[in-house]
Amino acid sequence: MTCRVSRRRAAMSDEEYWEDVAASLQDRPLEEDVNDENLQDVFTFPDPCGVCGEYGACGYDSEGRALVHAEGLRKPD
Q: Which residues does 31 contact at the CB level (< 8 Å), separation at least 6?
């Protein structure tokens, strides 16, 4: 799946890019009730990871961002 704005944003300068990102976030309310207790619920998937078997994030980076294993895309049958 390709991001619908990736080509447009790839052609932008850094300043234009961040202005576009900020504009896209202005109409979206921030999730203020996401905390450590329900964070796992935010990153829960219906099927386990094919690499490690986790149903949520496969791990977290040093800044607490969720990491998932990238698997090759499969063609539909």
A: 42
